[in-house]
Design a protein that fits this description.
The structure is a single chain. By secondary structure, this protein is of the alpha/beta class. It folds into three domains: 316 residues, Thiamin diphosphate (ThDP)-binding fold, Pyr/PP domains (Rossmann fold), CATH 3.40.50.970; 185 residues, Rossmann fold (3-Layer(aba) Sandwich), CATH 3.40.50; 135 residues, Rossmann fold (3-Layer(aba) Sandwich), CATH 3.40.50.920. Helices cover 41% and strands 15% of the residues. The chain has 25 helices and 22 strands. The protein starts with a helix and ends in a 9-residue tail after the last helix.
């Protein structure tokens, strides 16, 4: 029976890929017995409720093998879940979805997509990301157990499995994540390494000859080996070794062969393209399947899986739900936390914890005010937690009232990711997939190292908070290697990511008010190293305008707008100073603070025109970053004071002078625009006054 249904999975994969004329048949063929054994004998997962909180997680890190996952989700009868976390009556993956694999709107897309197909625990495809996110899931499981489990009530004890390939093991992010997992002794984590020794270019002997098992032993992992991927009993023994390990994460090395179990074993073309109709029929014949029957599912297949993973998962979930009801009677506050967390809701009154900051011409760095706000909010939201890539003292992201998450104390809320920016962002994604509210932090210049994971948090619509400090040439003498120039434009180019660069402590408070309330969007906070004045809001507009992305901070003194000064972050105070200087010359300047372009672009045209009146074409954009993107706000009649080089190593005041971020330079630019505008309008005397 095992062989019959393993080959059923293989046949469905072959047919889906052949029908699509696109896909990777080799990996599903070789690893099907391992995936089948895991799901049918071990995985604690209820297809009728694929989001119950204590389920085991299965992450297909080698996402190109998605046909394998779609076949499993279909055969096990996984139910669909809507955006309100309600389980629906329809299947997550229908037979029609398999027939339309890789076609528009199919729930069987080319790679696993979280939120698109129920049963997918993480969006994968970029190799290494899945295994890295699985580390975050495992860490989240350990933290949940420490916070919520009580004597007699083991609410959280789930395991996390990730299926990885040679490509995952080559990617640097997997090494970062494995090193962290070994240090953290995550015994609830199991990576299954499909060592089939084939990548797109051919045999891995041309690039990848290291001893992976030895490397993971050095990381502090338990390592087991499966010499024959087709031997389900051997697979089961390896999985039992993981279940018996209570001190270390486990790597199971599976020695498989691309196309194993077919006449095409070892053929390079099996990896990256369909076999062809004749080869598919020959392979089915070899496997004992009807060669001409497409999407063949033998009698009893659905019942077989229902009696295996289905029955086991349903029983485990029923026991858990009964235990949760008893728990709620004894620990109602904790039970309410669990319920709110699972629905991505927040505690009542959490906004009351937000602090306020009095006007202060000296002010403080936005990284410092952000740290204060973060601590206040985290006291009110117990599942808000995170850390930095070895930069907590600089990014000001330590929760001063909470301990550290380490192998000897899982209750801490401060996570130390080490100098591993890429893994830190991916681990945060994994924690968010487990419904925690994570943040991680680093210098803005090093956001490039984490870009792949940041992109996935946007693609998966996860409310991860990416905190970046040292946001500009304000880094000063550290020089151009540490002075971000193009990073802001790069982050703003990413769909679904809200990028905030607040101008003072008041805007920081409002930024956190927005960010904590997000349910399906990640945010990047871009914060200063140097102190910025805290504006007197009794003289200027209130910071609540942050919610609209951009707002009028200060208008022209007499209401006549000759020029608009647009700025973000540290440059807003510069714009305010320029406004005052221009006023002495009779030039009316409006200052617009633009902390979040994405939110401003979402506003109705009426509001955008109110902030940036179309008739006022004299506009100056001011930002210590690449000028890319500013043209759509300043227009053809405007100017941009920005960065066109990588900066330099010097004290801050010298840098500001060198690159033009001074009241004199910006005022000169504004005067010239006003003069040109008057000339164009034929107003005679073109002097600014």
């Amino acid at each position: 029976m095992d062989a019959l249904f393993i080959n059923t999975i293989r046949g469905l994969c072959l047919d889906a890929i052949q029908r699509a004329e696109s896909g990777h048949p080799g990996t599903p063929m070789d690893i099907a017995p391992v995936a089948y054994t895991l799901w049918q004998r071990f995985l604690r997962f209820d297809p009728s409720d694929p989001i119950w909180p204590n389920r085991d997680r299965f992450v297909l890190s080698e996402g190109h093998a998605s046909a394998l996952l779609w076949s499993l989700l279909h055969l096990t009868g996984v139910r669909a879940v809507n955006s309100d976390y309600e389980v629906l009556g329809r299947p997550a993956v229908t037979l029609e979805d398999l027939r339309t694999f890789r076609r528009l709107d199919s729930h069987a897309p080319g790679h696993p997509e979280y939120r698109w197909t129920s049963g997918v625990e993480a969006t994968t495809g970029p190799l290494g990301q899945g295994v890295a996110m699985s580390v975050g899931m495992a860490m989240a499981g350990q933290w949940l157990a420490a916070r919520y489990n009580r004597n007699g009530f083991s609410l959280f004890d789930f395991d996390v499995y990730a299926l990885a390939g040679d490509g995952c093991m080559m990617e640097g992010i997997s090494g970062e994540a494995a090193s962290l997992a070994g240090h953290q002794r995550l015994s609830n984590l199991c990576w299954i390494y499909d060592s089939n020794r084939v990548t797109i270019e051919g045999h891995t002997g041309i690039t990848f000859t290291e001893d992976v098992a030895a490397r993971f032993i050095a990381y502090g992992w338990n390592v087991a080996t499966i010499s024959d991927a087709n031997d389900v009993d051997q697979v089961a023994r390896a999985l039992h070794s993981f279940k018996a390990e209570h001190e270390r994460p486990t790597l199971i090395v599976v020695h498989s062969h691309i196309g194993y179990g077919s006449p095409l074993e070892g053929s390079p073309r099996v990896h990256g393209e369909p076999l062809g109709a004749d080869a598919v029929r020959a392979t089915k014949r070899f496997l004992g399947m009807p060669p001409d029957a497409e999407f063949f599912i033998p009698d009893g297949a659905y019942d077989w899986f229902a009696e295996g993973v289905g029955r086991r998962g349903a029983q485990a979930r029923a026991v858990w739900e009964g235990r949760l009801k008893e728990y709620a009677n004894l620990y109602p506050a904790l039970a309410e936390e669990i319920e709110r967390m699972q629905r991505r809701e927040l505690p009542d009154g959490w906004q009351d914890a937000l602090p306020s900051f009095p006007p202060d011409p000296k002010g403080l760095a936005t990284r410092a005010s952000s740290g204060q706000v973060l601590n206040a909010v985290a006291e009110a939201v117990p599942w808000l937690l995170g850390g930095s890539a070895d930069l907590t003292p600089s990014t000001k992201t330590r929760l001063t009232f909470a301990g550290d998450f380490q192998s000897d104390d899982r209750s801490g809320r401060n996570f130390h990711f080490g100098v591993r920016e890429h893994a830190a962002a991916a681990v945060a994604n994994g924690m968010a997939l487990t419904k925690l509210r994570p943040y991680w932090s680093g210098f803005l210049i090093f956001s490039d190292y984490a870009r792949g994971a940041i992109r996935l948090s946007a693609l998966m619509e996860l409310p991860v908070v990416h905190i970046f400090t040292h946001d500009s040439i304000g880094v000063g003498q550290d020089g151009p290697t540490h002075q971000p120039v193009e990073q802001l434009a790069s982050l703003r180019a990413m769909p679904g990511l809200l990028v905030f660069r607040p101008a003072d402590a008041g805007e920081v408070v409002e930024t956190w008010r927005i960010v904590v309330g997000l349910r399906r969007e990640p945010a990047a906070l871009v914060l200063s190293r140097q102190p910025l004045p805290t504006f007197d809001r009794s003289r200027l507009s209130g910071a609540e305008g942050v919610a609209k992305g951009a707002y009028v901070l200060a208008d022209a003194p007499d209401g006549r707008i000759d020029v608009i000064l647009l700025a973000t972050g540290s440059e807003v105070a510069l714009a305010v100073a320029v406004r005052e200087e221009l006023a002495t010359e009779g030039i009316g300047a409006r200052v617009v603070s633009m902390p979040c372009w994405e939110l401003f672009d979402r506003q109705p045209p009426e509001y955008r025109d109110q902030v940036l009146p179309p008739e006022v074409t004299a506009r100056v954009g001011i930002e210590q970053a690449s000028t890319l993107g500013w043209d759509r706000y300043v227009g053809p009649g405007g100017a941009i004071v920005g960065m066109h080089t990588f900066g330099a190593s010097a004290p801050l005041k010298q840098l500001l002078s060198r690159f033009g971020f001074t009241p004199e330079k910006v005022s000169q630019t504004a005067r010239e625009l006003v003069r040109r505008r008057k000339e164009a309008r034929g107003e005679g005397d073109a002097s600014p006054a």
